[in-house]
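User: what does the whole thing look like in 3D?
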Amino acid sequence: MSFIRKPDIRYKGQRTNALGLTLRDYEGGMSTLCAGCGHDSITSALVQAFFELDIEPYRVAKLSGIGCSSKTPAYFLSQAHGINAVHGRMPAVATGANAAARDLYYIGVSGDGDSLSIGLGQFAHAMRRNLHMLYLIENNGVYGLTKGQFSASADIGSKAKKGEINEQRPIDPVKTALAMGGTFVARGFSGDKDQLLPMLKAGLKHDGFAMIDVLSPCVTFNDHEDSTKSYAHTRQFYHPAVHADFIPPAEPIRAGYDEGEAVPVQLHDGSQVLLRKVAPDYDPHDRAAAMSYLERHEQAGEIVTGLLYIEEHRPTMHAINQTAATALRDLDYSVLNPGAAALAELQKRFR
Amino acid sequence: MKPTDTSDPDYFHKVVDCQWACPAHTNVPEYIRLIAQGRYTDAYLLNRESNVFPGILGRVCDRPCEPACRRARVEDKPVAICRLKRVAADLSDEVADQLPRRPAQGNGKRVALIGAGCASLTVANDLLPLGYEVVIYEKLGETGGLMRSNIPRFRLPPEILDTEINAIVEMGAELRLNAPVESLKGLLDEGFDAVFVGTGAPHGKNLELPGRYDTDRIHIGIAWLESVAFQHIESIGEKVLIIGGGNTAMDCCRSSLRLGGKDVKVMARKPRHLLKASDWELEDAEEEQVELLLNHSPEEFIVEDGRLTGMKFARVEWHDDGSGRLKAKTLDHVVIPCDDVILAIGQENAFPWIERDMGIEFDEWNVPVVDKNTFESTRPGVFFGGDSAFGPKNIIWAVEHGHQAAISIHKYCQGESMTERLPYGMNLASTKMSIHEWSYSNDFDPAERRLMPHVSLKERFKNLDIEVELGFSYEQTLTEVERCLNCDIQTVFAAKLCIECDACIDICPVDCLTITQNGAEQELRTRLSAPAENTSQDLYVSEDLPHTGRVMVKDENLCVHCGLCAERCPTAAWDMQKSELIIPYATDEAQCPKEQKAG
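Assistant: Here's the predicted 3D structure for the full assembly of 950 residues, as structure tokens:
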């Protein structure tokens, strides 16, 4: 962590977005994480993503649970809404908030500890409901905040800093998401912003639950040579399968891909995700094939990354439950509370 | 791009824009830090190594450092470097006992310096400690040259001049005042081993227009200022026109106000942005209600019945003639009434006392041919410096000429090659004190530039000698020193330690770092975190990074030296290191063993 604040310097030639805001307007408080923590890099990519999507900070709700990852929403979009929920219970809070104010962008930042141990049930049900949010797992394989115990995502055989060897099978959030019906499933790496940034933008624009598992090395407890979640290991076994390019609605598509190399995916707001298949045999629309591809490469010790699966037309929680099209906050009190007679009428139907 | 060679002292020197822009390469950030610590005497002495007149230049320097200051890239105004220099000079203890003296045993060589101005005095300052016998010839009855005769006392009080000039003379120079040199040949016949000419550019340019010689109320600016300085002139008419737009014009108009001028106008041919006067001098003149009339081209002096009554001007507008040159187009004519006219349209050097048959070559403009590096003329042993070498520049240039000429004179007298000079050196040392502590103040202070307090407009005209600028207060100094970005504290990068975690890039407040694939400079500049459009500032490119083979690129343009990259770096691949430029002077040449020079 740093002990002086990042100074607010408005220099000449600083870029602004369509709202006239600079990157600095999307930042938050000073990070208190360890210097070199992958989470800070993800925070920086998020700042860039919101800036480039021209999203007003007040139209964003940031949610998190407990852990190093869950501290990070404090470090971006200081003018957004936010809540730091109970350990592992962030998806329930997100569901409630989303039900009441559906017009915000929801971003949940969680960790392997928060989502894959105590919060696994919440995580799974949020996907099952296809809650409209971007859910990030900042995955480093250890409990950094409690000094380096293995988390549920630690690989078999990986060593802790003090030498213990992990012998339990890891829970892979990507495979879990595919199994639970996730409609946008991706894996990124904090050390590859070029790949991560368009995935974050596409995830924010995806109409449904977008889960991105981001490998985010813990420099203090899990960046040694026997770790499978270190910078060096990840770079060595990194296997990009699909690269996503995000193209906003008004922008012409400039990327020149050969036919068959890129799959365009139209999102509900008119923006597009161009999926460039780095591995030619990969099909990001086939859930079963994605699962087997992952399995195959995992056997070979490779870490598959990219936007691995996307399904753009599955109904979201709001569609399934036929909720009001307007955020509850904007509804008139008489509509929200139609009175005792309406309640009695409703109760009659259950008799 | 190839990996940047940071072992070349010029690379890091160029990042210290103020020092790079200063002709004498004064170590600005270091002396500002010393002032911040209250070490005024140390700041003064450090300043004096390169710039032998800190008190004088703290008031009247042309300050090329300030337009170069990096602070101006993150906000409009540079650090008030010159004002801070004055603080150190004003608050410094007596330093005479800390300056070197001429050793009791001389080296047997005699050097004559012609003119007691800034260039000659610098040569004396550098040669006296080496045991040279130095004789200074000055045609006037006082030292200082143009610093005393042409800069009004309300900008530069005589006691400041005396203090700093006496410090040099008292090292052991022989000063001959009222001793004009009328023949260089004659001087050389006296057996000097070398002669240095530092006579400035003492002739003001004339304006040969109708009526020029029909009145005695038309004055040449620098001669008039000299007469004011030596109290030969004590009054002027109420309506005064100053012709010219340079700093001499500003001194003339402000002096006129103090000698009785009520309606003083500066008449300039060019538009404001093309005027040669420094911004602050223009501002000071305008604060004193001097009227600045632009685009007025002088055509005629109007003399009626033997009395100057006015001057005729063409009002012009300027346009590009297609080849990049400005051409004037006359719009109409105006007559501006006046009692006196002062011509401040430039100055030139003149050498009627140098015989043309003694081997000193003169060029087509009648200016001696002088080697740009050694300052030697075409006659061995005769050197020129200051305005007399390459025409009017400013004091700090003259000082630098003096330093270089002193090296040449020393080498010439010792029979060494003048072109084989010691190169610049550099010290780099970490400023790391603990994990998050650096030995410099790295927290960016957004404070705006402090303004110099002035004597009130009511008070300042009472007397020609009242110094207008009051100097910074303690509070102003405290704030201003913190505005300095410490550009000599360099970001030094060790590629082999980098794990490419991006922490430095994320924390940089001005987006000047990028990890990317290498490429050609022009193309690389377009794909950095922030496009690097200032091509006068280097891109630092690292060796290939160990994990991915990409490179770390730093655009040196906007860095504010906050050190957050180094503070964030988990592996200490970045370090904040102080670069100290080692500038060789005559003393260093004298101390360097011959065999090392050969190497």
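In plain terms: The CA atoms of residues 328 and 336 of chain A lie 7 Å apart. The two ends of chain A are 60 Å apart (CA to CA).
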